[in-house]
Amino acid sequence: MRIRRIQSTLTRAFALIVVLTIVLLGSVSLSFLKRTLVDAAKASTMQFASQLSRIVDNYISYMDDISLVVSDDAGVRAYMEAPRAASGQDRAKIVRFLSSIRKVRRDIDGVFLLPLGNGKPGVDIGAIIASSPGASLNSAYDFSQYPELLGDLPVSSAHVENMIDGRYPWVISLVRELHGDSGTLLGYIQVDLNYAVIDDLCRNAQMGLTSPGVPAPRDSGYVFILGASGDIVYHPRQQLVYGGLKTERIAEILALRRGSITEKADGRDLLYTARPSDKTGWTIVVVSYLSELLSDSRRAFYTFVLLALLCFAISSIVSSIVSLRISRPIESLRRSMQEVERGNFDIDITVESSNEVYQLARDCDIAVKKVRDLIEQNRKDSEQKRILELRALQAQINPHFLYNTLDSIVWMVELGENEEAIDVTSNLARFFRLGISRGSEVITIRTEIEYLETYLSIQKTRYKSKLDYEVSFQPELYDYRILKLLVQPVVENAIYHGIKNKKSPGIVRILGEREGRTMLIRVTDDGVGMGEERLAAVRALLATGDRTAFDGQAENALSGVGVNNVQERIRLYFGSEYGLSFESRQGAGTTVTIRIPLIAKGELGEETDP
Amino acid sequence: MRDRSLIPMLGLALAAALVASFVYRGEAKPERQREKIVAIFKTGSASNAFWSSVRDGVESGAQDYGLDLSIRSPRDEIYVDEQIEIMKGAIAERPAAIVLAACDYHRLVESVREAKAAHIKVVCVDSFIETEDADAKIGTDNFEAGQTCGKALLRCLGKGSKVAVMSYVQDSSTAIGRESGLRNALGGRATVIGTSYSSSETDKAYAQAKDILAKESSLRGIAALNLPTLLGAAEALEESGRSGSVVLVGVDDSAEVMRYIEHGIVRDAIVQKPFNMGYLSMATVRELLSGKKPERYTNTGSVDINKANMFEPENQKLLFPVDGN
């Protein structure tokens, strides 16, 4: 498993939280900003459209005023009432008047008087008067449809004017009915506006739409004008629209009349804002690119992204520092523990911190120190065991026992008791073989019994009838294990201090039995026994194990170091609940109980099969 | 330790900043490298309304599609060699694309192949070449235009009437298409007395028409297949005063043609859409350069214009160019 550092986990978590917060807040506020901006853009575009429509209306009003001036002219009225009666001079005068108007206003393409004559427009062709002196009227002009051509409105849509022969200008016509004093319709006064005027007007307006410094025409908005019937009066890309290469959403805009719609075109969002003009029946349509209108929101977006990155960087640093403060003590604790892993227990685990980590470090420190003490204890114990084993060996090879036995053998040989001598010698040999050889510390009860019997039979050779003995273990115990040289020193003690000083013959009994998970080996003699005082001294010695604290009394009571050594070994191997206990009465004998745990094969490890 | 975990975080922040700045730059698009396009027309004459309309369309399209356009033309459409030279010069400049109105149906094939071999896209506009070497072609279906012309004649003529065909350049694809369309429509119902070629010169056409009118007293119809020819024929017919008995139809329009229609000299004019032709050629170039596959042939269409329909709003828009576009 990959180990993740706390620091990086924390840093990552911090970063995630920061990023999530930023993204969430950002998207909400940006969409809000966007909506606000769109609303503002709609409002300002509508205002712009209204302004433009007012300009157009004003312009048309002005043109209307001019046609009013014409209609109020006395000469014109006279001519319109009786066109046929007019002399050539009268006509020339009217032409001069009309052409002067045209000269003053270059945006006027032409002024025409169309008297009704016999009541139908256009029938009296020759009577039409145009503002251009010298220009011949188009003899093929079809007046039958006049004024239907212009529709119901006083202002026509953009159209080609063909009243003058061979000229086909695009114009917008303003037509005023001229009524006589009696109210009868005399005819029409038509003022043709140069189409270029509307073009200029809208182009100038378009400049207003373009942000300064962004001259690209594709990115700024544009203005177009729809006629009452949905035809295009003006469009900046007129040729494209007329050629069918560009279409506008005319039906939707007409249905809308006034307001805004957004449309998608060429993958861009367009805002159409329509505003009908009051006087002309036209609809001014302002088209703006939402992307342009929303450039503020885009700027906000980038500012936001930069801020977000800044926050992110700051949070990264802060979270790194915070997590470092958390993880540094842990890291230092970890390093200490790594030292421990390598086996170095001689360290002080101290962590500069004041939280749980500090407590943890302190606990670790205590644990490590305990482990260190235990190791030390273990080491001491092992050393002790070795010393005790050596002592046990020394005790076993009690020189007096050997000298005495050898003396016995000598006597036997001298007395010609060869059989007995052979017995003792071979027993002695077996005794030492069993005791010294087999480097193993642990032996079976079976072997122990053999050993004890060998020992006792040697002693029996010496003490003859003065010593009797009995070794009896429950057979189920035979395969359990026992530490070597546990029982023999106790038996030796019983013989030397119990039986030897007794006048009458004595008996040593060695009984082994099981008590739950414990094995009890009782060594009983019916020897001299011990007085109260001595028994207390012996018990005290066994309890403390401190030989030096006592005088030789207790020491003497236990044959040399032997019995005390047994007690120490048992305690060392099995704990203080095991060991020796003495029962004795002066003159009645002594019982020593060896209490050890029931040990099956292999439980003490270092064992080789006998 | 501190550095090791800070580095990826800062790295991430830096990467995000980079991405953001990249997006930002993408938004504030620098002026795109405009591809160089050479348009080679048949004539540079400013008086030719048809070609100035094509020019308007091409310029408008080049602006809309972000192309760096240069327009070249021979003196007139009969100067095929001159156009071949212009092609050579253009190929040497290695533009991204060449838009060509071929003066000759056969002789420009080699030039187009050379351009293609130099990995230059070629779009034929109005007049095509014999082979399919060009990447795309845009123009009027001239056979169809010729047929419309013939039908217009038949509407006004009795069966078996004598008709003169006045064409312009013999080996021009448009002339070939129009004449075969015309003959196809006339079928057996009119007698074609011959074809003349005006070299797209109004004066020559005028002389030719005058000559025919003088020779053929029983002539009932004239089909003039392009603008200069039509103007020449109309002038001759107006002068002759026989517009009542001789039906003149033609291809292409101008203000003059409109005047002739209004006054009954020209009965029908089959009007092409030169602006659209020019504009769409740029759209097609843009598609080609963007690696898209545009239509191999775009028919821009033609409309039959006569006195009755010329002032209909739709036709007004087509016939009379609006200034300031």
Classified in CATH, the superfamily of the domain at 397-597 in chain A is: Histidine kinase-like ATPase, C-terminal domain
Which sheet architecture does the biggest sheet of chain B show? 6 strands, parallel
Largest sheet of chain A: 5 strands, antiparallel
The greatest inter-chain interface is formed by: A-B, 44 and 43 residues
Arithmetic mean of pLDDT of chain B: 87
> How many domains is the backbone of chain B divided into?
2
Strand fraction of chain B: 15-25%
Overview of this structure, please?
The complex is a heterodimer of chains A (610) and B (325). Chain A has helices spanning 6-72, 74-81, 88-104, 195-209, 238-242, 250-256, 290-293, 295-341, 356-396, 399-414, 418-436, 445-463, 487-499, 532-544, 552-557, 562-574, and strands at 108-115, 129-130, 155-160, 170-179, 185-194, 222-226, 232-234, 259-265, 268-276, 283-289, 442-444, 467-473, 481-483, 506-515, 518-525, 579-585, 589-597. Chain A is an alpha+beta fold and 610 residues long. Chain A has a five-stranded antiparallel β-sheet. In chain A, strands 7-6-10-9-8 form a five-stranded antiparallel β-sheet. In chain A, helix 8 runs parallel beside helix 9, helix 9 (356-396) runs antiparallel to helix 16 (562-574) and helix 11 (418-436) runs antiparallel to helix 12 (445-463). The longest helix of chain A has 67 residues, at 6-72. Chain A is rod-shaped, with a radius of gyration of 66 Å. Mean pLDDT of chain A is 79; it is low at 122-126 and 211-218. By secondary structure, chain B is α/β, with parallel strands linked by helices. In chain B, 47% of the residues lie in helices and 20% in strands. Chain B contains eleven helices and twelve strands. In chain B, the strands form two sheets. Chain B has a six-stranded parallel β-sheet with strand order 2-1-3-4-5-11, with helices on both faces. In chain B, strands 7-6-8-9-10-12 form a six-stranded mixed β-sheet, sandwiched between helices. In chain B, helix 2 (49-64) links the parallel strand 1 and strand 2 (67-72). Chain B is elongated, with a radius of gyration of 25 Å. The termini of chain B are far apart. The interface between A and B is large, with 44 and 43 residues.
